[in-house]
Write a structure and sequence with these properties.
The complex is a heterodimer of chains A (109) and B (427). Chain A is mainly alpha-helical and 109 residues long. Chain A contains five helices and no strands. The longest helix of chain A has 30 residues. With 427 residues, chain B is α/β, with parallel strands linked by helices. Helix content of chain B is 31%, strand content 25%. In chain B, strands 5-2-1-9-21 form a five-stranded parallel sheet. A four-stranded parallel sheet of chain B has the order 13-12-11-17. In chain B, strands 22, 23, 24 and 25 form a four-stranded antiparallel sheet that branches. In chain B, α2 packs parallel to α10 and α2 crosses α11. Classes of the chains: A mainly alpha (109), B alpha/beta (427). At the A-B interface, α1, α2 and α4 of A face α2, α10, β22, β23 and α11 of B.
Chain lengths: 109, 427
């Protein structure tokens, strides 16, 4: 008689695998979304030395969300950012802020 | 030189090994065994090479084939014509892509691509197999659309300087030799062409130089289009207010032939124009390798792609990005946009080679700065989202816009953008 736990374990492992893959796949999408900021703010939000546009890496998520909302609503005036901020949903802004806040301000060497 | 040779040998050796194993199916589920070949090291290709490495956590092997020794930025190259910058200021080496990111950089051209066997044959004769090919070939000038232009260009008489480099410097020399009271004329092809606002920016920056150095000179903009194709109201205001009597804009001037001996350009309808310095831009199409591989299936000029992963609609596993594609509505052929395409394609390739579903909702951004003299700048910005129901990109409702007027703050932002995007692509 086939012990029941074998297929169950296989199912469990498969589910765990799918979940891990799901997380990696989701992380890739977040990194891809964050890359739409990199042209001006630097790869992974790390501004170049002497940059006149602020870096995003390592800044508190709440601060980044607040700034983006202010650009989006028009409360904060600027040249390009009010126009770009309106292109991102509130959920995307939260996602971006969480990502950049988790990045180290200095590039890993 | 030795580095180049070593890299070539390495690439050729790897290609030999891969040719033995063959590659009938891509290495899905084993990204560490997969190879992405990137053809062309401009804004699109360099970014794609870097981001496939970055987003795969350096698992996927990336080979970049590029004939030039270093990247030279087209954006900002009009400043070389204005005299405030040198080509060296716009030049970035490929070394960081190799050293920081482990991209194998091969200095060569691609002579042919076999989309079935998935092998590219290089100009040197070596061949490189691939699981995925990212083709970022830029544009090719359609010389035959303007009779006499190819010969005049080869002789160095009538330049295009639409690929930054030696021609940019040569055109600057022609401008320096222009007599005070002379005429500089730029002829613009029908859209779409690379960098929609580029010709108008060029007119502004050259006008700034002429205003200071040769105040009696005149600048003619001979546009095949019905009207200015980008930032029209802003450019026209600059010409009227900053360069009155110097710049003259003439729409509906479609160049058909040039005569290098008399420095004359003829048009489909309008009277011919003679100028002391002629800068004639012919119509453009996807880079030659894309056309040759049969990928330019839109009007025999541009490459249709699946916008979710930029895969060619002609051949599987070939992804075309940058100026060479048939664009979506309101999507400019710009360096920034090519960089945006590259990131979507890199993420899609990483997902696919891992066996994951590709992102069903990719986003693109674009910011384009144009100088109106050597300091002041105007921009246009946009955010684009993939709309599944239409299988294309649309600008996000309410987003995007233009500068209200030229300003120096954006001049500083433009330089910051340039340094940052070069580093994002190549650093």
């Amino acid at each position: 008689m086939t012990p029941l736990w074998i297929p169950r374990l296989a199912l469990l492992l498969a589910a765990f695998g799918a979940q891990a893959q799901g997380q990696e796949s989701q992380d890739l999408r977040t990194r891809s979304l964050a890359a739409t900021c990199a042209h001006c703010h630097g790869t992974d939000g790390r501004a170049l030395p002497g940059a006149v546009v602020a870096g995003l890496a390592g800044r508190p998520a709440a601060e980044l969300v607040e700034q983006m909302r202010a650009f989006k609503s028009g409360a904060r005036n600027a040249t390009v950012m009010p126009q770009l901020a309106k292109g991102y949903s509130d959920a995307q802004i939260e996602q971006l802020a969480a990502y950049f806040s988790a990045q180290k301000a200095q590039a890993p060497r | 030189m030795t580095l180049r040779r070593r890299e070539l040998l390495k690439a050729a050796g790897a290609a030999g090994a891969l040719a033995l194993t063959g590659c009938a199916t891509p290495m899905i589920g084993t990204p560490d065994k997969a190879r992405v070949l990137v053809v062309g090291g401009g804004f699109g290709g360099a970014t794609a090479a870097k981001y496939v490495r970055v987003l795969s956590d350096a698992k996927i092997d990336v080979v970049l084939v590029e004939p030039d020794a270093a990247f030279v930025s087209c954006p900002l190259s009009n400043l070389v014509l204005g005299g405030s910058r040198q080509v060296a200021d716009l030049t970035v080496p490929y070394t960081a892509l190799a050293k920081q990111h482990g991209v194998t950089v091969v200095r060569d051209t691609v002579a042919s691509i076999d989309p079935v066997k998935r092998v590219a044959v290089l100009g040197s004769g070596a061949s490189i197999g691939y699981d995925k090919l990212v083709l970022s070939p830029g544009v090719e000038m359609m010389w035959d659309r303007v009779a006499g232009l190819k010969e005049a260009n080869t002789q160095g008489r009538i330049l295009q300087a639409w690929k930054a480099g030696p021609e940019t410097v040569a055109l600057r020399r022609q401008l320096e030799a222009l007599p005070d009271g002379g005429v500089f004329a730029i002829a613009i092809p029908e859209a779409p062409y690379r960098c929609p606002p580029g010709p108008y920016e060029r007119a502004c920056v050259v006008a700034a130089y002429l205003k200071a150095a040769k105040p009696k000179a005149k600048l003619l903009i001979l546009d095949a289009n019905e009207d200015v194709t980008s930032k029209g109201a802003l450019f026209k205001r600059v010409w009227a207010e900053q360069y009155p009597g110097l710049v003259e804009y003439r729409p509906q001037h479609k160049a058909t032939s040039v005569d290098a001996a008399s420095n004359t350009v003829k048009f489909e309808i309008q009277d011919e124009v003679r100028a002391d310095v002629l800068n004639v831009l012919p119509p453009m199409r996807a880079g030659a390798i894309a056309v040759q591989t049969g990928l330019a299936n839109s009007n025999a000029r541009w490459c249709n792609v699946n916008f979710l992963n930029f895969e060619s609609t002609v051949h599987k596993h070939i992804h075309v990005i940058g100026d060479a594609i048939q664009v979506a509505s309101l999507m400019p052929k710009s360096g920034h946009m090519a960089n945006s395409h590259a990131k979507v394609v890199a993420a899609a390739i990483v997902a696919e080679l891992n066996g994951w579903e590709i992102n069903p909702a990719p986003m693109l951004s674009n910011t384009c700065y144009s100088f109106v003299d050597d300091q002041r700048v105007i921009h246009v910005a946009s955010v684009h989202e993939y709309v599944a129901a239409e299988k294309t990109y649309r600008t996000v409702a309410g987003s995007g816009g233009l500068s209200p007027a030229p300003n120096e703050l954006e001049g500083r932002y433009a330089w910051n953008w340039a340094r940052t995007i070069w580093a994002d692509a190549l650093g």
